[in-house]
Design goal:
Elements: H1 2-16, H2 21-35, H3 41-51, H4 58-101, H5 105-135, H6 149-164, H7 169-187
Helix pairs in contact: 1-2, 1-4, 2-4, 2-5, 3-4, 3-5, 6-7
Length: about 190
Amino acid sequence: MIYLLLYFEFFKVAIFTFGGGYASLPLIYDAVVQNNAWITAQQYADIIALEGMAPGPMAINVATFVGTLIAGVPGSIIATLGLCTPAMFICIVVARFYLKYKDQNLVQSLLSSLRPTAIGLIAAAAITIFLTGIFNNGDGSIVMENFNIWSVLIFVGGLYLLRRSRINELWLIVMGFGLGVILYPFVS
């Protein structure tokens, strides 16, 4: 039964995601943390951090990680298939439609209205992950006693390096990992 639920939840995520992998994060969060309680908010934040070190599309990596946690290797395959199946069919239909009608005003208007929606979904995911990382609470709530200044400093430093230098994102992840390993004994 868990396999069917996994497939269905990730299928729904794929159907309702507009704007790429990052836009799927709040929908995946709702499916696996809020609605089904398969994993905690802290586990989800950890998955997002680990996903950055894996090659490949972000949403597929997250589906694979989550599926593995919930139901092992078969779960990872089923969650990934659930995420990919609708996208494949939607892309085929949309590509054919777009090629035929791309110059129509209605199509351009529709695309213009979807862009801010996608940005909003990405921002919601970023805020959720940020709050979970900063407050280290594991359940998605904000508890001031769990505030972690080191997480804030690593975040600000990483953001600064990302915006002000040409540092590769992979090196930024490696540096954040290294700082986390060094600082963890002092902050936990």
